[in-house]
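help with this record:
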Amino acid sequence: MITATCELSGERMRPQRVPSAPSLRKIYQKLFRVLGPQGWWPAKSSFEMMLGAILTQATNWHNVEQAIQRLAHTGALQPREVLAIPARRLEQLVRPAGYFRQKAKRVKAFTQWYVDRYAGRARRMFRTPWRKLREELLALHGIGPETADSMLLYAGQQPVFVIDAYTTRIFRRHRLIRGKATYDTIQRWVMQELPADTQLYNEYHALLVAVGKQFCHRRHPDCNHCPLGKLPRTLEVNIDGSG
């Protein structure tokens, strides 16, 4: 039997059985019961959602909202309108999201591909089998696994589980993953343990983000109020860059 000792705030507990992989479902059920549906991803169109996935890299959603609002006020939430905006103007519009020069280039590159490859139409884009489409997205400048998978799940309704810093931190603190597990390794494990259900993946990821933002902070986690606080846990995690 694998055991773990709680090491938070100097608290000592008797070794307990570490949750096994099937506990992923129990974790989801508990989070959903306590936190309820999250209504994520907040966007009015698939294209807006995909722009948001690019802009949210290395920043928080509040900053992304400001950038999206700026784009909306200029009528730049349609693919061809984005391509028509001069580079420097686009940089200023997305400035609240941080790394504005890099993100403006990424937005332009993605949008140009979206128009050239799929005529700027989400339905056409997501008719491509998701594994092939994922490869196409990962080949684009500035699109990594988390961004690509967010687009596939939230804009395309594809059964792809998104792994982000919050997910990794929560799973590691609760001893569901160990060591330096890679993105692909964690994703493959989760998708093996859970049914291929788009709505489940959507809600589960959103709930983990909510836990990460509200309770499972990087340096000062609030385990006493966290819905998962009674599970065996530890602070032995690799420091990541969010929350």
User: Anything to note?
Assistant: Confidence is low (pLDDT under 50) at residues 1-22, 237-243. The beta strands are 3-4, 16-17.
